[in-house]
Specification:
Blueprint (H helix, E strand, L loop, with lengths): L2 H5 L3 H10 L6 H9 L23 H5 L16 H20 L2 H24 L1
Length: 126
């Protein structure tokens, strides 16, 4: 057995490996905030008084979520407009989740949508 096989043997094994990494924030944190914090009324919530302690800081919970294909992702597209739009969407997610800057995130997403529409128009003209 190699290291890859060991850490991908199950969602629990991979989740335990991901949880052991010294990272400040992972995609499971973003998903947790979208699923729970965005609709939570608690003020100054922390680990001690969170209503969802089993999901909080839990990569295994995130690994078991159904992939919906939604959310911003980086792109390998050679089209610079598509890359720029993807980067704007990622920054919007970061601004919203890390700093609670919803207005800025909304503007970034609108800019990304404009760039994507422009790229689609250019593609049609080819």
């Amino acid at each position: 057995m190699n290291n890859f096989e060991r850490i991908t043997a199950s969602p629990e094994a991979l989740g335990a490996f991901l949880a052991s990494l010294p990272v400040l924030q992972g995609p499971w944190d973003d998903a947790f905030h979208r699923a729970f914090c965005d609709t939570c009324d608690a003020e100054n919530c922390d680990a001690e008084n969170c209503a969802h302690p089993t999901e909080r800081d839990n990569p295994t919970w995130w690994l078991k979520l159904a992939y919906t294909g939604s959310g911003p992702v980086r792109t390998d597209s050679p089209d610079p407009y598509k890359r720029q739009a993807a980067d704007l969407r990622l920054e919007a997610l970061h601004q919203r989740n890390s700093f609670g800057r919803n207005l800025l995130a909304t503007e970034l997403e609108a800019a990304a949508a404009t760039i994507e529409a422009m790229a689609a128009e250019l593609e049609e003209k080819k």
